[in-house]
Amino acid sequence: MPGGGGSAGRDAGGGPGSSGSSGSSGRMPYVLISTQIRLEVGPTMVGDEHSDPDLMSFLGATKRNMLGNHFWEYYVTDAPRVVLNKLESRGYRVVSMTGVGQTLVWCLHKD
Amino acid sequence: MPGGGGSAGRDAGGGPGSSGSSGSSGRMPYVLISTQIRLEVGPTMVGDEHSDPDLMSFLGATKRNMLGNHFWEYYVTDAPRVVLNKLESRGYRVVSMTGVGQTLVWCLHKD
Amino acid sequence: MPGGGGSAGRDAGGGPGSSGSSGSSGRMPYVLISTQIRLEVGPTMVGDEHSDPDLMSFLGATKRNMLGNHFWEYYVTDAPRVVLNKLESRGYRVVSMTGVGQTLVWCLHKD
Amino acid sequence: MPGGGGSAGRDAGGGPGSSGSSGSSGRMPYVLISTQIRLEVGPTMVGDEHSDPDLMSFLGATKRNMLGNHFWEYYVTDAPRVVLNKLESRGYRVVSMTGVGQTLVWCLHKD
Amino acid sequence: MPGGGGSAGRDAGGGPGSSGSSGSSGRMPYVLISTQIRLEVGPTMVGDEHSDPDLMSFLGATKRNMLGNHFWEYYVTDAPRVVLNKLESRGYRVVSMTGVGQTLVWCLHKD
Question: What is the Cα gyration radius of chain D?
Fold first, then answer.
């Protein structure tokens, strides 16, 4: 997974240490997807600006800028169930699902 | 499972790649069901327009169009607990359950 | 478990198939319990009209009619934690817990 | 665990059977803890009037009466994460976590 | 993990026993992280005043005081998904995820 969406560019959190940056380079064991209001239809949000481009491509996701440049996200028009099935074919399994406000979120993990 | 509700017709998300369409054809490892307000009674939503017709038939589900043609859903009059028991007999197990607004949602998976 | 609260009387959902009715007769692998507002006290809802009468009896549950004949439910005066402990002695394990509105819900499964 | 907070005094739910009372005496496989609004600080609610006194003592919990005698609860001033770590040392593992209203709830189980 | 953020300074809960203080010293099997409103961006809260300083340093976290001295918290500017991936490299796995109000919370555990 060359160039695989690690967090190298983000951990400038001002913390006292910096050992974290080497701990997650190039691996993407967790994926978060979400949808709003109705679970039977898309769009489904499938990634953020640091997500693995290869996985986003596999899902057929489009990158867009939200809220006046503040952050980027990837979305697909598929319903979340269809996305879960696609991610399963790549080894991701649902760990937990929750609702927050009008948004449904799934947390997936790949060993 | 001939004609088994894959996502072939949905992944026109405009993404840069299209390798996703072949990844989920004909498999339906995840099922989402939901009910509103009271968990002791139905109806229970059991599928979307891309759900496996055989599984929907097994559940005795009816397909209906919601919100002026915007999307389709399958529902049964059974309470969600009854649906969970039926799905278990087909190998589906509850992974997670959540509430969002007035809706209770179950995420099930079949190995 | 003779006469054990199957779903035989409920799956008249108008679906195109009816193979579902034989799939869940007499088994009750899933149980849903719920309580409102405070988790430290009962009452706890433990079943619906199709719940296994033997299990309801084991829990000491009372059947009551809610909302002008619309549906039946079983309840106990125990707090939910006490009910979870009783159900565990019968082989049920918590799979997931969630809140929806003012209601806390537990989903239990027995292998 | 002599005198271990069973549910013997509570299952007077008026149900048709009473076999439940012998099913949970002296075992406490499930624990529910909760906190309000902020997860970084206590107090954390750790038990109800039927909770195991030994476990409550281990956690350093105080019993108090809420809402004009209606029910009792145990609380600690620790943040919930600290309580989870203490309970883990006694064999309890988190099964599920949820939010309901302004309250966060953890459900723990001990084999 | 010298000086590893145990709960020794917090369990003055007024409880009748004090055996709890020795049960959790120096171990941090559970971690709670949270974010608000949008899951695609940080900041992500990663700890409280008793969290393991080494782990906080690994994450690049900054300690800050909230609400007029009432409590401390650690945060990073990373999105929660990036934090989950970093914590996974240290052996933490997501046990459950939930929403409460506008906040998304993940509960992680390390064996």
Answer: 15
Question: N- to C-terminal Cα distance for chain A?
Answer: 15
**Which residues, at least 6 apart from D31, have a Cβ–Cβ distance to it below 8 Å?**
C81, D46, D47, D51, D55, D87, D92, D107, D108, D109, D110
- Per-chain mean pLDDT for chain E: 80
Q: Exposed, middle or buried, D93 (CB in 10 Å: 0-12/13-18/19+)?
A: middle
Cβ-Cβ pairs closer than 8 A, B with C, add up to 133
Cα–Cα distance between A96 and B71 in angstroms, integer? 26
C21 Cα to chain B: minimum distance (Å)? 8
Closest residue of B to C74, CA-based? B40
pLDDT at E18 over 50: no
- CB of E64 within 8 Å of a chain D CB? The answer is no
Return the H-helix or E-strand segment holding D45.
Answer: strand D44-48
CB pairs under 8 A between A and B: 130
Residue A80: closest CA among E95, B107, E82, B76: B107
| Closest residue, chain B, to A81 (C-alpha) | B30
Bridge partner list, A73: A48, A64
Q: What predicted TM-score, i.e. pTM, was given to this entire model?
A: 0.81
- Give the ranges where B2-94 is alpha helix by DSSP (H): 53-59, 80-89
Q: What is the per-residue pLDDT for A22?
A: 35
Name residue E99's beta-bridge partners: E104
Binary contact (A82, B29; C-beta < 8 A): no
Q: Is D78 on the interface with E (CB under 8 A)?
A: yes
The answer to whether the CB of A39 falls within 8 A of the CB of B32 is yes
D44-64 average pLDDT score: 96
> Which pair of tokens denotes residue D63?
């019993």
Residue A26's pLDDT is 57
How many CB atoms are located within 10 Å of the residue C92 CB? 23
- 3-state secondary structure (DSSP) of residue E99: strand
Between CA E81 and CA E96 the distance in angstroms is: 14
D110 CB within 8 Å of a chain E CB: no
Query: Where does residue B111 rank: exposed (0-12), middle (13-18), buried (19+ CB within 10 A)?
Result: exposed
CA B56, C9, C4 angle in degrees (round to 5)? 105
Amino acid at B71: F
The Cα D33–Cα D105 span in angstroms is: 6
Percent of chain A past pLDDT 70, that is, above it, reads 72
CB contact under 8 A, B30 and A86: no
Instruction: With CA atoms as reference, report the closest residue to D6 among C34, C31, C83, C107.
Output: C83
Task: Mention every residue, 6+ apart, whose C-beta is less than 8 A from residue A74.
Answer: A45, A46, A47, A48, A51, A56, A59, A61, A62, A63, A64
